[in-house]
Amino acid sequence: MMNVLFKQIDRVLIAQLNRPKALNALSSELMYELLTGLENYDADSSVGCIIITGNDTFFCAGADIKEMASKNATQMIEEDYFNHWERIAKLKTPIIAAVSGYAFGGGCELAMMSDIIYASENAVFGQPEIKLGVIPGIGGTQRLTKLVGKSKAMDIILTGRDVSAIEANRIGLVSKIFPQKDFMQHVLDQAQKVANYSKVALKTAKETINQSLETGLKSGVVFERKLFHSLFNTPDQQEGMQAFIEKRIPQFNNFN
Ligand code: DAK
């Protein structure tokens, strides 16, 4: 069985985790399929936005505990376990995590590696690794802290408690909550909106926002301005501004 189902709707690529018997736990096989699939679509100019999702009741219950359980530290270090997952964070196309139901451990971390997290009303987030005698290992301690601040991150990671969609939205983990009914349609509408903009502008915006997490304000603003200037060398800038002046919808280069 395929662990990930890929489906393209217009300019939006939907990657649906599909390992229902293990609540979409992230086995090596599943991650291999997800990573290679996403990297291929990332390079495809017909894809302007990616959605990663699960199903109505679970997004993903985390790294595969059964696969990890018997490993020792030597194996983990030798394999540099989880290191390759960072390839998701390197993708240039905007990624939306559409979370309905559980997003625990690596599932929550996968969502945080995405650019936007939309949650259904029934979404539940958590980093329960502490209950297993470990800590988040796919960026959770770092990304959660950057998103919600030290105090909340400590509370969530040290207690391993559940975080409801409402709380996740309030503390800035989630971008927006949509009703459970027609959740995917709401997400798709947002994704279509993003996907129809200029891809080069989208990639540049994503890169610039991510840079703000790595750099101070002054150099970050310089970085932004340089990329802003460089966009004036793109046909999409010409088209976008000309269309505004002529009061028509822009036809970005994506549609070649
Ligand atoms: N891995 C493997 N199988 C899982 C799983 C997981 N994460 N989560 C659920 N399953 C499996 C269950 O074992 C069960 O399989 P069978 O018994 O039917 O064979 C099936 O999915 C259905 O699960 P439940 O029967 O438990 O379903 P419930 O609805 O009762 O409960 C639940 C749902 C999500 C509350 C519960 O399944 C649960 O608590 N799951 C574990 C959630 C969790 O702890 N996630 C964090 C995973 S650990 C590191 C290395 C590793 C890590 C960190 C650092 N370093 C290298 C530094 C760990 C990372 C993680 O993500």
Automatic annotation (TrEMBL):
It comes from the Bacteria. One of its GO terms (molecular function) is enoyl-CoA hydratase activity. Gene3D superfamilies: 2-enoyl-CoA Hydratase, Chain A, domain 1, Lyase 2-enoyl-coa Hydratase, Chain A, domain 2. Keywords: Lyase. Transmembrane segments: none annotated. SUPFAM superfamilies: ClpP/crotonase (SSF52096). InterPro entries: ClpP/crotonase-like_dom_sf, Enoyl-CoA_hyd/isom_CS, Enoyl-CoA_hydra/iso, Enoyl-CoA_hydra_C. It is an enzyme of class 4 (lyase). Coiled coil: none annotated. Its EC number is 4.2.1.17. Belongs to the enoyl-CoA hydratase/isomerase family. This is Enoyl-CoA hydratase echA8. It comes from Tenacibaculum polynesiense. The gene is echA.
